[in-house]
Amino acid sequence: MFVSGSEAGRRLPQHGNVITAAREAGVGLVVYTSIAKADTSTLALAAEHRATEQLLRDSGLPYVFLRNSWYLENYTGQLATYREHGVAGAAGDGRVSAATRADYAAAAAAVLTAQDQAGSVYELGGAPFSMAELAAEVSRQTGAPVSYLDLPVDKYTELLVAAGLPEGYAAMLADADRGIAQGELEVGDDLARLLGRTPTTLAEAIRAAL
């Protein structure tokens, strides 16, 4: 199981080291956590994943790509902020197929313990929702009036920086919202098929986080 590194912008040489070590050790299968639609995505975050996928193809190692969409925890971790200030973003009417970390982990376990997985590519995510639908669900479950404010990407970046985020991280989050607006983080039902059940929904995740 090859979980991508956490240092965006510095991951490719780290990933290359992992792949070299796996090849030298004669690893029989590498299951890599990538990003949704890595081969076509224009998200800044996707570049290192796309390059890592190519390194794995070139290595000759048997591989599986788990192309994870966004995490529901990205949203449920901000419920207090949403209740006080509302939901802001740059995603327009785009929808994101977010899922819980636990569901992504269960899907990875299913792949690791299954037969004949080499060469498989899974586009993983839960039931898609828009930021307006996120705001409506938070409002429904908390009883607080919560709405969605859609901003241009540069203005959303400025808002995140004003809230205390480092500029580079803020720009990355705003760029992800741009990708959501263009459908780059909306995927099909591969996650449900691997789990053998419906992934945790947005409503369930919010309820559990309150």
Characterization of the model:
The chain has 210 residues and is an alpha/beta fold. The chain contains 10 helices and 7 strands. The chain has a 3-stranded parallel beta sheet with strand order 1-2-5, sandwiched between helices. Strands 3-7 form a two-stranded parallel sheet. Strand 1 (30-35), helix 2 (46-59) and strand 2 form a beta-alpha-beta unit. The mean pLDDT is 97.
Task: Write the SSE topology.
Layout: H1 11-25, E1 30-35, H2 46-59, E2 63-68, H3 73-76, H4 79-85, E3 87-89, E4 95-96, H5 101-112, E5 121-124, E6 129-130, H6 131-142, E7 148-150, H7 153-162, H8 167-181, H9 190-195, H10 202-209
Parallel strand pairs: 1-2, 2-5, 3-7
Antiparallel strand pairs: 4-6
Helix pairs in contact: 1-2, 6-10, 7-8
Summarize it.
By secondary structure, the protein is α/β, with parallel strands linked by helices.
Quaternary assembly = single chain
User: What structural class do the secondary elements suggest?
Assistant: alpha/beta
The overall average pLDDT, rounded, is 97
Number of strands: 7
Shape: globular
Task: Considering the chains and any ligands shown, give keywords for the structure.
single chain, 210 residues, alpha/beta, two-stranded parallel ribbon, 7 strands
